[in-house]
Every structure is written in C-alpha cells, then in structure tokens.
Amino acid sequence: MTETNEAELHNGEFHDGSPKDPLARTQEISEISDLSKQGYQMLKENRITEAMERFNRILEVDDNNNYALVGMGDAARKRGGFREAVNYYQRCLTHHPGNNYALFGLADCYKALNQFHKAIEIWEQYLLHDNTNITVLTRVADAYRKIRDFKHSKAVYLKVLEMEERNPYAIIGLGHLHYDFKEYREALFYWEKMFEFNHEGVDIRVLTSIGNCHRKLKTFEEGITYFETALRREPYNFYALFGMADCYRGMNQQERSLDYWNRILEQDPRNKVILTRAGDAYRHMENYEMAVEYYQRALNIEFDTYAVLGLAVVAKAQGRYAEAQESLGRLIQQDPKNYRLYLEQADCCLKRGEKHRARETLESFQRMGIRSQAITEMLEKIKD
Fold this sequence. Notes:
Elements: H1 22-44, H2 48-61, H3 66-78, H4 82-95, H5 100-112, H6 116-129, H7 134-146, H8 150-163, H9 168-180, H10 184-197, H11 204-217, H12 220-233, H13 238-250, H14 254-267, H15 272-284, H16 288-301, H17 305-317, H18 321-334, H19 339-351, H20 355-366, H21 373-383
Helix pairs in contact: 1-2, 1-3, 2-3, 3-4, 3-5, 4-5, 5-6, 6-7, 7-8, 7-9, 8-9, 9-10, 10-11, 11-12, 11-13, 12-13, 13-14, 14-15, 15-16, 15-17, 16-17, 17-18, 18-19, 19-20, 20-21
C-alpha cells in the first residue's frame, strides 16, 4: 500500500464541513499515514487484533479511508471472516471505485465462499486495469475450472503460459482441468511437464496426481513408480498409500494391496471406505472370516452400501443364497440405480436355478433407461 494522499482526507474539512487549519490537516495526514503503515506491518506479522485497532483509529477520523477499509477487509479475511471482509471491500469500492486492492480481496473472499461466478466478475473488473497480472489470471482460470467451464478455463491458463512458459500454477491447473473432465492422458501431459522441470524438488501432489492418471488409465505399474517415489518422501501420505493399494487391487495382487489399506488404517482406523476396501481384498483372497470382520467394522461406524454388499457376496460365496438375496433386495430399494446390485442378485437367482427371476431382475434395471454393458452381457448369456 502507498501512503494516503491529502485529497482523500475530506479535502481539508472537519466532518461537520468546517474548514480545517493547515497545521491540523498536516498533522492528521501524518497520523493516518503512520497508523496505516503500522496496521499493514502488523498484518504481515499476523497480529490481526492490533492491526484492526490501528485501522479503526483511522476510520474514526476518516470513515471512508480506502487504506483503512482495505486493511480491515484484509484482517477479517486473514482470520476467516469472509462475509465481514466483503462488507469492508464493498464499502471501499463504493467510495473508491476501481481500487485494485479492494477488488482483489473481494474476489478472493467470493472464491473462499464458493461464489465463483461473483469472483470471476470481480477479477475481470481488476483485469480491466491490469490485464497482464498473472496471479489474477490464474485465479480466474481456477474459478472457471470450479464452475466446470472447460473452454474459458483452458483459454486463460494457456494465456498465462504464453506470458510465462513455465508458470507452475497454470501447468498444474491444466492438469486438474483435464483430470476433472476425465481426459487423463492430457492431464498426464501437463503434470509430467512439472516433473520434467524439477525431478527432485517437485511437489508431492504432482507425483500423486501423475500416479492417479496412470491408475485411471489402468497403467498400474507406471502409477506404482510415482506413488513409491511419493512414499519415500512421506511414508504415511494418504493419497500415495491409497494409490499403491488401488494399483495392486487393479493388478489383482490383493495381498499386496492389503499392506497399504492396513497402513492407512493404522493412521485412520475409522475410515469406513478403507475398511470396506480391505474387506474386499480379504474376500477376493477367500479369507471370508477376515472380510466379514472388516465389513462389520465399517458398519459399526455407519451404514455403508458397499460393506453390506460385501457381506452379501460373502454369503453368496458360502452358499447362503437366500440371505444374500434378502440383503441385495434391501440395497436395491435404497440404491435402485446401482447396476452391480442387480448383477449380484441375478447371480444368486441363477445359483438357485431361478433363471426366469434372474432375467426379470436384470430387465427391471433396463426399464429405468440406464445403460450398462455388464447388465446387457449377462442378459444375453441367460437368453442363450
């Protein structure tokens, strides 16, 4: 921030409109300048309450002072009071339209409040004054990505890269953008660029993002390489452990996947998603006793469709078809669009010799107008 200039101090008048003598006016300008400098220094040092006290002292003398209003907004934003901060920034812009600091702070508040359309509108106002500000451009691109506007988001990220070829925020943003739209090869292209620029010091999130692209592309062995690199840096990084476990699951190496599911559970024993995944691994290994234990641990936390499904599949594997059918029937009522439930239910029917009922189960799913290759293939096998 720069110092307050004389013209901004009510043009040398007291609040009641009476003229102010030059000496008093000069003294007031000096005091406000000192308070402003102190306030912003305190903000840098994270002394929020003291900074606000300085800005409030300015506002007692000059209630529309732009530096004090922006300072109060910045202070409120720093402590997470985004709605309070919005009020200060808007008040500043009412009296000082186009104030870049107020525009920047206001847009950041709207972003924090997930009001991305408003944030974009404000940042675009800012860009009218400074259309080469890379920080603002990447924020605009991020906001477009959050509202799933692929075209505008990509265009702004690419504009940043034209200005700064190796800008990490734009490159990583393009990776996230393509990943969000399931364009995993394109996402991989951008994240691998980051890895090429800095092998040793690359952010661990880039490593796990590259691993996740390989996981989605089912190139599991390549994914494992990146997740292992991440784990050498942070042995208990959740995303790296999850990635390793899921890659081994995809490679049907259930025992190795279990090592990583259980490492996550050492840190987070009440994670029901991981408990269910571990239960699935034990089930595939035909260790039904342990599978049931893990599914029950998940259900002791709260209801989970996949834990109940796992128990039903265990019951089916052990020949308890009626029990499995009963569980699957309840799940279908609760989650009628989950095609896997119909596949398991139809398989139970076939195991009991109820071919007609199996066919009817699968056709009831198709009548909802949802397409599933797995459902179609199973129906064709039954008909044949």
